[in-house]
Amino acid sequence: MQATQAPVVDSAAFFAAPPSTPSALVDARSRFITNLANAEKFESAVREARNGGNQVLAAMGSWVTGEYQKALDFVGHTSELDTFVKGNSEFELGNFAAACATLKGSHQSQDPQLVACTLHALLADNRAEEFIAALKVAQLSATDQLYFAGRRKELDGAYEAAAVDYRSAIELDPKHFAARFRLAFRADLHGDELLAVSLYEGFLTSLPIPAAVLLNLGILYEDRNDFERACGCFGAVLRRDPNNQVARLYFHDSHDSLDMFYDENRELKEDQLMKVLRTPISDFELSVRARNCLTNMNIKSLSELVSHTEEDLLEFKNFGETSLNEIKRVLNLKGLRLGIRRDDGTFVIPDEFDASRSIDIETELAWLGKLSEEQREALDLQISTLNLSVRCHRALVERLNLQRVSDILLYSEEDLLGMPNFGITSLNELQKKLEEYGLRLRSGRGEDYGQE
Q: pTM value?
């Protein structure tokens, strides 16, 4: 049977006919960044634009991928679109005064996205009077009218009435980010932690994930003593914006608290990780191109390699997607991944890390029998290409930190069913997808490893 692939979006269309207005740019983000596979493809094209010196495309593309500092580095100063990219990037980086200065007078624009961006900046910089005056003349979409009416009521302390407006906006447009975010924010302040977490976690499938979502969700995780997830949220903000002082402060607090909960097994696993990370790169079979690139970057050990992110490697001259995928496969077979070094020099222990794992994935999956060429290719596919439901995808990618189809097959049906929020419906969905590639999960340890 032909496997169903996630829809692939041709990012070349963006660069061939780039957006000319703020609204068109916002729409482009929703069209080109629809899933991880499309996001990676688009990010690669943006890197080429930056390396090629095309400032216009580099600025717009960087904004679409959520690389706001790089968008600022390339943006011009000649159009409303430039004003939006610069003002919104400043806003997303927390530079609210600078955003207001850039967007000054833009509330009178005919473009609703630029108007909304200006009103948000005024609110964030506590310019209530300017916001109220601008709101009176602003031309907004019907959904934004409801949303900003709610923000206006908040200024007067009418929080319940504001929440009604936010819910009305969401009913009109279920994807309206600002209304959903503000409703989550109010729920958190009123002590409805379950609703707040649920709303914030709903944003985790939207790319790029806004920094404000990650910060607020990280704080809620911290309140629950879920310091691993809290560190993950704050670390994600820092990878995008290393100068974010709020994220840095919260990250260190959560990491310090995490240290208090280490048990002997975790300490043993950390010792095993450090031993593996001392392994020299020369111990692995790599292509000449990949090996030369790592040598030129002065990367000699696994610890130095995993200290870099995918973006770090791809920014290096002559280092392409082929070399990246080759290196990711090597790391994956040891339960490692790129970008696990914390800011304080320690390393995140991936959930899938096991120092005893063989680096031969086919040996680990010997119970499948002799693999066909099609099955070998399927093992290397990103999980996102399976086009799974949100619940199933999040359980595999976010909770287990799995990346490829081969990672899934290291778990049995029992293992997966033992996970929170992974039930028989998700299992049946996953099994059906795997069968399309001629693969299957182990039904249990007794079947494949012999009865003990």
A: 0.57
